[in-house]
Amino acid sequence: MSAAAIPVPTAPRESFLTEGYTIASWLTTRDHKRIAILYAIAITLFFFLGGAAAALIRIELVTPRGDLVTADTYNKLFTIHGVVMVWFFLIPSIPATLGNFLVPLMIGSREVAFPRLNLLSWYIYVLGGIFTVAMLVAGGVDTGWTFYTPFSTMFSNTHVVWAAAGVFIVGFSSILTGLNFIVTVHRMRAPGMTWFRLPLFVWALYATSLILVLATPVLAMTLTLIVIERVLHIGIFDPALGGDPLLFQHLFWFYSHPAVYIMVLPAMGVVSEMITCFARKRIFGYRFMAYAILGIAAFGFLVWGHHMFVSGQSVYAGMVFSMLSMMVAVPSAIKVFNWTATLYKGSIVFTAPMLYALGFVGLFTIGGMTGIYLATLAADVHLTDTYFVIAHFHSIMVGGSVMAYLGGIHYWWPKITGRRYSEAWGRVAAIVIFFGFNLTFFPQYLLGYLGMPRRYHEYAPDLQVLNVLSSGGASILAVGYLLPLLYLGWSLFKGPPAGPNPWNAKGLEWTTDSPPPKENFREPPLVTEPPYAYDPEHPER
Amino acid sequence: MNERAGWLLPAASDVAHRVDHVLFALFVVTGFTAIAIAFIVLVFCLRYRRGAKVDRSNAPANKRWLEYTWTFTPLAIFLGFFAWGAVVYAGFYGRARGAMPVFVVGKQWMWRLEHANGRREIDQLHLPLGQKVRLVLATEDVIHSFYVPAFRIKQDAVPGRYTELTFTPTRLGTYELHCTEYCGTDHARMGGRVFVMRPEDFARWLAEGGTRPTMAARGFEAFRRLGCSGCHDARSTVHAPDLTGIYHRIVHLQDGRTVVADEAYIRDSILLPKRDVVAGFEPIMPSFEGQASEADILDIIAWLKSTGPTEEK
After folding, report:
1. DSSP for B216-282, written as a single string
2. More confident residue, A102 or B261
């Protein structure tokens, strides 16, 4: 560990954490760093709520017969798993926690552009969360997170309106966060921090914010239309009332496909920071990496129809969406190649964050490649709505986004808390999660090819072996997710002081105290060099 | 029901082989690339680990030609797969000359299937080996999806419209049928079996249906019962289009459009008569929404087909 060479650091006497100790001081804070921590607590609660639903699903699927829960309960479980994980964990995960904490620090600003809106966005998130938990307590919802019509508007007897209201509300917190980052990055960069000196994390958050602001309103409208049809029986999606069910799918995926990039672009940003730091090497192809981020964000808006190849949409529309989907895969491939090339002639050290980053690259590559299967029309007809799709998007969202989120939490943990965590336990957890993930989802790729449909409470007995393997992997994954709670919790109280820059990393956030003072920097920073000025020949510098 | 031999799924239709070729090629190309990337990452990680005494001088921070290479090579490969997949996909929806029609109606939580001679099945489908089949799908409630893994076919049944799919069974046996669009409580139990039989066995099975009227006969009965014949009959005094042999004819509409009178058009004309008014006629027909069931409409279509000169068998 390079950190061993650093003289024993001491904790700063004053930091944003010492500004106030009362609950009120937290709940009324306008400090982006404290809001980031508020978000981190909230999304962690929702992560374990969504995880509990997943655990019940996997336990149910250990046997082919539906013997643990009823079919209706099972349907509610996968719905709540999807709703909570997508809107209450994955979408806010990196942007609202690491993004909130780091974007101002990385660009050398004292604050985000709109501190009050930032706090408001957290309260909106909590309000949306309250609606969702209330809906759950009242009996849940069984439409699947996709809310397909006319099932959701005319046939489901569960709390669709409450669920839609929760998601509708939480969408506005996304919009406010996105708006804040866009203005912050445009207006509040330190002197010398040109666009092409921005860390790739900031580029990724910037692109993500554009998607948040442009796509989320479409979701809000779509959910509103669902409620209008369900409550007022005004025909929009149900043909019995003169509507069109495919219209719903177009509107829903117009938001929900870009939403995938909302989840994965920030992850790419995090991984770019960690790989370059622990390889002690400038990121390979910085400009191509930045352009690839923008390319993904732009093309991401043009591929929604690939969710609808068997929906009855026109064959020619299918072809256009298939081709555009192939295009969006290219910048993702560029990123994988550039991360790999960054390792070349580096001076690589395998810290816990680096293990998460390497795990991300592997699992994201698999998720991206299986995406090509699904973008290929003929293959998609067989694979869509089977476990192949489940495994594919969990590779991107769990193997990708969650891995990167956890890696980022480890990487910036000393900066956020001012304390070190147990590296050994960090590495153990990263490896456990990697193996747990693969054991969970590789069998699911096979199950999908063999024709096991998704959202099935029961399945053919000959598929039991693969399902048992998958459930076994899920329990390993659960251990991997609980471990960081323990050793990071320990670090919070007992961890040794980290010092300003324990990783010897570049970037403005490492030039200030850990934890940073309320105003972020004691003196306004001036940027004079390009990002990632690492030298692999002198890793200690 | 246990059709899978180990971890292999049988390929029981013409479509299945074509799809499997695409999948196999995808597997080889992506598998090779994944292993290559993993190998390179591993080599770099070992060779350039901290403390290893290796040459790290002049480490490149970018290489323009390399970026272009790994931009355009994947693009070309991806577009190749796009084109291949699109050609196979188009085959699912191609012109179905000589295909045997099967009408599929999804309903929470069962499949009702109907053959042209009027034989109906629930959650079971009997098909003759080697005969091209054209499925016409409808649903009475929510979206369902008709999926036979061994055939590699899947098609949503969408409320308010017909969807269709063409394939040929090529292997005798019994195969799973699933619903793959989530449709509520018993979604997982909405399925059944597909039996592919020798043509002579199928003919015998089809005849066992006995004396039940054919779809066309029931359609004629529905045409009378619902009062369609009151206006559309040749002897009627009401000015309405004569429907004899209408199926697959080109129809000129009031607003200048021309359409082919396929299943979807006939269905829409019964339920939404004001939408596509035929040139030269007044829009006086009422909607039969709520009066004509999905089964009635399919029967009427079968009858209209039977009145044509080139009946599609």
Report:
1. HHHHHHHHHHTTHHHHHSTT-SS-----TT-TT-EEEBTTS-EEE--HHHHHHHHH-TTTSPBTTS-
2. A102
